[in-house]
Design a protein that fits this description.
The complex is a heterodimer. Chain A has 5 helices and 13 strands. Chain A is an alpha/beta fold. Chain A is globular and about 50 Å long. Chain B is of the alpha/beta class. Chain B has a single domain, classed as Glutaconate Coenzyme A-transferase (3-Layer(aba) Sandwich). In chain B, helix 2 packs parallel to helix 3 and helix 5 crosses helix 6. Classes of the chains: A alpha/beta, B alpha/beta.
């Protein structure tokens, strides 16, 4: 993919966050991963009440803290300063992961390095032996939360495919991804592979397929 | 009479011995017992195994303990925070060992340690490289891996308020690992921002009951790790 293409077609990071937010139903309990997923909190449509869980011990996370709101001991999983909504609750780490592993969180939004057509996710390690590996809570989240939304660019900065037949990087979990929201399309992981649900303006089937490392299925004629 | 107060952080950490396993509370800077860590650096114990979610930031607190060469092994989930270079440096040179544990497994291993449960099966990490070599078993239609409890010689934690029994309440997301670490260590050492009389803490809101706590030090105005890191501070 050329730089020119990257600028002229596709959704912005905010658009991706909005696409995800639109698919989160009223009343859902949602955990947000670090980076792009953090933007989802600002995009929930008016009239929907969604409770955000952050694994470092808060249910009812609010938006980022403004400079005057900063409390050094109120942070999210990405260690950024956040707020707590009225009705929020604090708890310790074992309780927090009881919520995750025990199936009490409805949706988790995570970033990705690679997603395979069977739902395998790789998002924690580039596989380099010299760097100190870091996993955080990602493996617990994909093991415990039934609906996993992935928010990612469709390809890497170098134009490498992220949507693949099989992941080549170390896995976070097997067959765990529900949907992938990229700058080019929203794609469900179905029984037979990647099913395209929606494409960004200016993206067509050929363009999307060229940028994907696995065969795409187009269940709707209109796409 | 039960009174767990110590006069100073130095006195509270004086008997931490070489080769001890020490649980240190905190998630990033939130809840990091920085005065206790600095007292441990001054005290000089080496060859420590440290359990913390991260590996510290800048050149203060946990990062300074690592930089001073006191840590033989880190057990953590995420040794890669903003401004965290000390650990990567030392680890890259092969100067200390890393046991990488998924965050929820780390929490549950500590919880199990405090609860008298030697091991447990978890679905986390099944099918990944972090499950390699571990016992696994099917329950129903799902595979689980066996994880062992974590216990320790000492825990260093921070809280908002404590009474002389060691009943604790915390502040917001600074709670994180502290309550489970308090239960999993033989000797739990707490730095509290304020000390209150018994009866002043509502029994309905006490998070850590005092029997999990051995020593209390009042640090009314603790150093703020993020401010120190931003200012480029180095300890000692």
């Amino acid at each position: 993919m050329t730089d020119v293409n990257r600028r002229t077609i596709g959704w912005s990071r905010e658009d991706i966050a909005r696409n995800i937010a639109n698919d989160i139903p009223d009343g859902a309990i949602v955990n947000l991963g670090i980076g792009l997923p953090e933007k989802v909190i600002d995009c929930i449509p008016q009239g929907r009440e969604v409770l955000f869980h952050t694994e470092n011990g808060l249910l009812g996370m609010g938006p980022s803290a403004s400079p005057t709101q900063v409390d050094l001991e109120l942070i999210n999983a990405g260690k950024k300063f956040v707020t707590a909504v009225p009705g929020a609750a604090y708890f310790h780490h074992a309780d927090s992961f009881m919520m995750i592993r025990g199936g009490h969180i409805d949706i988790c939004v995570l970033g990705a390095m690679q997603v395979a057509q069977n739902g395998d996710l790789a998002n924690w390690s580039m596989g380099e032996d010299d760097a100190a590996p870091a996993v955080g809570g990602a493996m617990d989240l994909v093991a415990g939360v039934r609906t996993i939304f992935v928010a990612t660019t469709h390809c890497t900065k170098d134009g490498e495919h992220k949507l693949l037949r099989a992941c080549t990087l170390p896995l976070t979990g097997r067959s765990v991804v529900t949907r992938v929201y990229t700058d080019l399309a929203t794609i469900a992981v179905g029984k037979h592979g990647f099913e395209v649900l929606q494409m960004a303006p200016g993206v067509d089937r050929t363009c999307l397929q060229q940028r994907s490392g696995a065969e795409l299925i187009f269940p709707r004629e209109s796409l | 009479m039960i009174d767990k107060r110590c006069a100073s952080a130095a006195e509270a950490v004086a008997d931490i011995f070489a080769g001890a396993t020490v649980l240190i509370g905190g998630f990033g800077a939130a809840g990091s017992p920085i005065e206790l860590i600095h007292a441990l650096i001054d005290q000089g114990a080496k060859g420590l195994t440290i359990v913390n979610n991260n590996t510290g930031s800048g050149h203060v607190g946990l990062a300074a303990l690592i930089e001073q060469g006191r840590v033989a092994k880190m057990i953590c989930s995420y040794p890669r925070t903003a401004n965290s270079t000390v650990f990567q440096d030392r680890y890259g040179k092969g100067e200390l060992e890393l046991e990488l544990v998924p965050q929820g497994t780390l929490a549950e291993r500590i919880r199990a340690g405090g609860a008298g449960i030697p091991a447990f099966y978890t679905p986390t990490a099944v099918g990944t490289s972090l499950a390699r070599g571990k016992e696994s078993r099917r329950f129903g239609d799902r595979e689980y891996v066996l994880e062992h409890a974590l216990t320790a010689d000492f825990a260093l934690i921070k809280c908002l308020r404590s009474d002389r029994y060691g009943n604790l309440v915390y502040n917001k997301t600074a709670r994180n690992f502290a309550p489970i670490m308090a239960a999993a260590a033989k000797t739990t050492i707490v730095q509290t921002q304020s000390y209150v009389a018994t009866g002043d803490l509502d029994p309905e809101v006490i998070v850590t009951p005092g029997l999990f706590v051995n020593r209390i030090v009042t640090i009314a105005e603790p150093l703020q790790e993020s401010a120190l890191v931003a200012a480029g501070a180095v300890y000692p």
